[in-house]
Write a structure and sequence with these properties.
single chain; alpha+beta; Aminopeptidase; seven-stranded mixed beta sheet; 4 helices; 7 strands; globular
Length: 173
């Protein structure tokens, strides 16, 4: 089941959100963090960076549940400058390693795109590592490469720098 998480349900979902984020980072996902990365640090990220913007309606948090537990998530960031009211950012597409290869990420993105359209957004942007497992998914559902930045982010093991790729999707087509 995929749903837009109601801000009043955030505290109840927080332990699952932290578990998913920590497991993804431990599995090598480059989503701004370097190992070691604990569930407590993950919970702190969700509380500080997501709860407040989400409560203001600028960042929508979608969750995918299996057996009542959050196993995947993605965010639609609507906080764009005044000259970009048509655009939104896709952020933190995460699927717990135990729930991968079941179409969850694809379904999360489909719901996110519908919500973006409903809110008058016609252009989505995101960034991901070119070697990330999500890169082929984004390409397969119509995201186009805008460009790459070599050495953009430190790898999760902290030993090398990775290339990131900026992608976009025009929802008006």
């Amino acid at each position: 089941m995929i749903e837009l998480l109601d801000p009043t349900d955030f505290d109840a979902a927080l332990p699952d959100l932290a578990r998913v984020l920590q497991a993804c980072v431990a599995g090598g996902a480059s989503v701004n963090f370097v190992l070691p990365f604990s569930e407590q640090q993950a919970a702190q990220f969700w509380r500080e960076k997501v709860q407040m913007p989400h409560a203001k309606g600028q960042r929508l948090l979608f969750v995918a549940r299996q057996n009542g537990q959050v196993m995947g998530t993605v965010q639609l960031d609507l906080d764009t400058p005044p000259n970009q009211p048509h655009r939104a950012d896709v952020a933190k597409l995460l699927v717990h390693p135990d729930a991968r290869r079941q179409g969850m990420a694809r379904r999360l993105l489909a719901i996110l795109e519908l919500e973006a359209k409903a809110r008058g957004r016609s252009l989505l942007t995101l960034d991901t590592l070119t070697k990330d497992v999500a890169f082929p998914l984004y390409r397969s559902i119509g995201y186009q490469v805008a460009g790459e930045v070599p050495g953009f982010a430190l790898s999760t093991d902290g030993k090398s720098y990775e290339t990131t790729c900026y992608l976009y999707k025009n929802l008006a087509v």
